[in-house]
Amino acid sequence: MIAQIRERVSEAGATRTPLRIKGKSSWLGAGRPVDAVDSLSVADLSGVSDYVPGDLTITVRAGTTLADLARLTGEHGQWFPLNPFGTDSGTIGATVATGSSGPLSHGFGTIRDLVLGLEVVTGDAKIVRGGGRVVKNVAGFDLVRLMTGSWGTLGVITEVTLRLYALPAHRTTIAMDAPTEPHRLAERFRALLEAPIMPYALEILSEEVSRRIGLPPRPMILIEIGGNDAAVSSQKVALAKLGAVIEAPSDCWDKLRTIANAGSTVFRLSGLPAGLAARWNAAKRIVEENSGAMMHASIGRGTVRCILSNDSPADAIEHLAPPDSLNTLILETAPAPLWARLSPTAISDRVSQSLRRAFDPFAILNPGILGTIN
Q1: Which end is more exposed in the chain, N or C (fewer Cβ atoms within 10 Å of the end residue's Cβ)?
Q2: 20, 43 in Cβ contact below 8 A?
């Protein structure tokens, strides 16, 4: 299968035919519009290449779904602690290529922290490998982090080596009310981050998000904790000291992951965690002005994720991150005109342009998804 992918890329390069790189095609609406007349799918390139449970690492082919990965590792009492937005039918290759993470990144880091090695077919049909299949691996050039989040513009990911963790004996999710006054909200954030707990996930939810995932229809804070009996019990006690808590539905995280529909404009407002309360309050004004709009945020990472209808005013979104702001606006999905206005390119700098030419000299891999090449 890898030979076939390499042959397809070689043919596309020879004819200068742009290719849209795909996994299960569930995330094709994300990113800037791609100017490609043909596609290349890695969905059939699936399965385990190498798995030594004692090393807590696994190497899988890019088309392996997150569901299959969970099943394979679960059989050995292990898991890959990543829950990117979307469903578990998405592939690990697409997850790495898009740099996608989810609420579990609070406790375990983003996808960049969990990928140990990978194999790619570059735009000139070369097979390149970076990283390794062990946790302790040193290389002079961090090809793994470069490829992670490059949206398939530097190479077609064909194989990935991942860091695993032992499955906890218990996992539970606790919810508590979120203060509505900005200063009290900031105090609550600070108290949670300083409390004697080690949460897997720590999110604040808007009223509409809370309602849709089965919580009371008001702003709530969602905390996932895990470990043995003693660890879970002590963390519950610590959380109860901060305010009244309730048990959350077991499927609330899966509902949160899939809360955005295909007709939504989704963007993130990123900045330092210390400024999250102010960032949340600023985004809330836009959400309150747009019917059905939603938002949630990672308290530990300081990132607010907003979900609006596609006809939401661009001026309101743009106002959240003016040029002199400490906030960064990152679009996930949006109509083409909104991309052109708010985020026309992510690769305008000389280094990014040079890297793109080095790995994809014919500019055939997902052209346009990160912006144009000068």
Answers
A1: C
A2: no
Q: Are residues 180 and 296 in the same domain?
A: no
86 and 53 fall within a common domain? yes
First vs last C-alpha separation in the chain: 33
Q: Residue 102: what are its φ and ψ, rounded to 5°?
A: -150, -165
Give a yes or no: residue 348 inside a domain: no
Q: DSSP character for 284?
A: H
What's the structural domain count of the chain? Answer: 3
User: Tokens for 299?
Assistant: 């308290």
Other residues' Cβ atoms within 10 Å of the Cβ of residue 259: 19
Please give the single-letter amino acid code of residue 225. I
- Domain range enclosing 252: 170-256
Map tokens 């004819």 to a residue. Answer: 15
What's the CATH number where 314 sits? Answer: 3.30.70
Nearest to 107 by CA among 161, 171, 37, 24: 171
122 lies in the same domain as 249? no
Q: What is the CATH number of the domain that holds 150?
A: 3.30.465.10
Residue pLDDT tens, the chain, 374 long: 889 999 999 999 999 999 999 988 877 788 899 999 899 999 999 999 999 999 999 999 999 999 999 999 999 999 999 999 999 999 999 999 999 999 999 999 999 999 999 999 999 999 999 887 654 454 455 889 999 999 999 999 999 999 999 999 999 999 999 999 999 999 999 999 999 999 999 999 999 999 999 999 999 999 999 999 999 999 999 999 999 999 999 899 999 999 998 788 999 999 999 999 999 999 998 888 888 899 999 999 999 999 998 777 788 888 887 777 788 999 999 999 999 998 989 898 999 999 999 999 999 999 999 988 77
Same domain, 61 and 125: yes
Rounded Cα distance, 374 and 210, in Å: 45
105 in the same domain as 93: yes
- Assess whether 152 and 174 both reside in one domain: no
From residue 67, alpha-carbon distances to 74, 82, 93, 155 in Å are 10, 11, 13, 24
The answer to whether the CB of 88 falls within 8 A of the CB of 65 is yes
